[in-house]
Amino acid sequence: MEQENGGVAIRLEGAGKRFGTRTVLQGVNLSVAAGEFLSVVGRSGSGKSTLLRLLAGLDTASVGRIRVDGKAAAQSRDDIRIMYQDARLLPWQTVADNVALGLKGKGSQVRKVALEALEQVGLSDRADEWPSVLSGGQRQRVALARALAHRPRLLLLDEPLGALDALTRIEMQALIESLWRDHQFTAVLVTHDVAEAVALADRVILIDQHTISYDLDVQLARPRLRGDADYAALEGQLLSRLLGKSEPHHQSQAA
Ligand SMILES: Nc1ncnc2c1ncn2[C@@H]1O[C@H](COP(=O)(O)OP(=O)(O)OP(=O)(O)O)[C@@H](O)[C@H]1O
């Protein structure tokens, strides 16, 4: 693989998003360092996917400023990849061709890049099969490979593991973490799973009442042990905030 370019920094200043008269996000201020792993949690409908779409440059802020690598997100599109809960693979293309989608260059070169990406997600032996014969977890691995093939400097993950069983989910979390460590891209993960948010992120933000209502540093050694008291304390702290309790019951343990 070619030299990685490292992650991009993100900066939001007073960013807001309205759809007609409905305010979804308002007064969002956020700085994400290059190479940081940020998780975003919040109630259903709080605006998490909207935030991700703004970062991807797929939509524009109604007010405020959003900068990805110092530019408008839409101008950083080549550096950004987004992954969703459903893999969105083309059923009439092989696994390798799905990974190669959108790559520029000669056929042999493009295939080489696709195979390298598949190898990184442990699926090089399935390159010439159809997506329909893969399991849900394997399809998500292909989606991850498709993103990696573009060497993203910002990987946006919109509840990518939400439809997977618990064990596959934990394996995928470990894969995402190791790819993030190897490639040093910036990662923003939207998840409903507070344990997942803590497992992966350097920092977790909570979206509530249209803005960032809580910003939690996760200073735990990696890889993280879920049974660990510090881990459970941070998870409890986040859950309390999410549920709207003013005094997180685990706060004293986390201090
Ligand atoms: N294109 C759009 N037009 C109108 N309203 C929209 C549009 N996109 C999102 N919304 C509204 O914005 C709000 C936030 O939606 P969003 O999908 O960002 O929430 P979310 O936190 O990701 O929710 P979930 O966790 O359920 O996926 C919702 O009320 C939604 O209906």
TrEMBL record:
Which keywords belong to this entry?
A: ATP-binding, Cell membrane, Hydrolase, Membrane, Nucleotide-binding, Translocase, Transport
UniProt-listed SMART domains: AAA
PANTHER family given in the database record: ALIPHATIC SULFONATES IMPORT ATP-BINDING PROTEIN SSUB, TAURINE IMPORT ATP-BINDING PROTEIN-RELATED
What is this enzyme's EC?
3.6.3.-
Q: Which organism is it from?
A: Advenella mimigardefordensis (strain DSM 17166 / LMG 22922 / DPN7)
Pfam families in the record, alphabetically? ABC_tran
The keyword Hydrolase belongs to this UniProt entry's keyword annotation: yes
ABC transporter domain location: 10-234
Molecular function per GO: ATP binding; ATP hydrolysis activity
As recorded in Swiss-Prot or TrEMBL, the protein's gene is named ssuB2
Q: What is this protein called?
A: Aliphatic sulfonates import ATP-binding protein SsuB
Q: Which InterPro entries match?
A: AAA+_ATPase, ABC_transporter-like_ATP-bd, ABC_transporter-like_CS, ABC_transporter_ATP-bind, P-loop_NTPase
Q: Which family does it belong to?
A: Belongs to the ABC transporter superfamily.
